[in-house]
Amino acid sequence: MRFGCALPQIGSAGPEGLVTAAKRAEDLGFDSFWVLDRLLWPINPREPYPGGPLPVKYKSVLDPLETLTFAAAHTRRIALGTSVLNVPWYNPVLLARRLTTLDVLSGGRLRVGFGIGWSTDEYEAAGAPWQERGKRADEFLQALKKIWTTDPVEFQGKYYRIPESIIGPKPVQKPHPPIYMAAFTPPAMKRVATEASGWFPAGIPLSGIGPMFEGIKGMAKEAGRDPSALDLIVRANVEIHNTPIQKDRRDFTGTLDQIAEDVTTTQKLGAAEMLFDVQFSPGVETAKDLVARMEDLWRMAKQA
User: Fold this and answer.
1) CA–CA separation, 54 vs 61, rounded Å?
2) Which of 121, 124, 116 lies closest to 141, judged by CA?
């Protein structure tokens, strides 16, 4: 199982800490580092944050692709991932150009995680319609793959249209960079089964991931795809504590020994990769704090 980590991107994140964390992740042997996509921190949110109170650190968030590009320039081997970009906020032609540029300039290290978000406040600020967001995501992926794999490119859909054109360059990775999708509703899970390279669950208990992934693989088989080709990547929002949590413990929270048990469980689920995000762990306020926790998790993961 591969291991990835989140870059310091929120709160007090800055260029020096970002470079330090990116280089240290690569030196330690992490396979990948990842960034998230958060647009704003609404004062009076219309929907509750899925994980509880909206984290204060979301008041300041570096742009995901610029953050990855900057980190890519200071590393050589480690893969670069988005966990996740919210598809309906973007235009497929403009985003394809940005993602392709990153894949080309990094020598083919890009991995793309997509989702559709949850906040109508962010949708409004992005100028993106909330209605039919799932159908837009389906068409977006079709257009993106056309741009990445064909020339000339032509696409005529309900939401997106591309006149017959040459669009270059193409990504280094063929046929295109891997696409992973976060999903937990039946339509979104079907999108994973038919369009994605793998499933990227976040916030779903480990006890539920196995059955849900089997369901996705079943949908892939029905669609004529090889279900064994789908990767499972588990996002672990880690909270490290000095003393064990005895009651109502969430996955990936507690002591390093408790978290190691969750890593073992994830391995047994057949996950291809785990992403550790410690940005919300108690005591992590600076990039130096984050790097220290990365080192703890790396040693723990290698022993699990």
Assistant:
1) 13
2) 116
| pLDDT tens column, 9-34 | 999 999 999 999 999 999 999 999 99
Averaged pLDDT, 46-62: 92
Confidence label for 297 from pLDDT (cuts 50, 70 and 90): very high
Q: How far apart are CA 130 and CA 124, in angstroms?
A: 8
Q: Which of 33, 49, 43, 131 is nearest to 88 (CA)?
A: 131
Would you give the distance in Å from CA 192 to the centre of its chain?
A: 14
36 C-beta neighbours (distance < 10 Å), count: 24
253-254 and 239-240 strand pairing: parallel
Query: What integer pLDDT is reported at residue 154 of this predicted model?
Result: 98
Residue 302 pLDDT: 87
Residue 79 pairs in a beta bridge with 32
Dump pLDDT digits (tens) for 160-177. 999 999 999 999 999 999
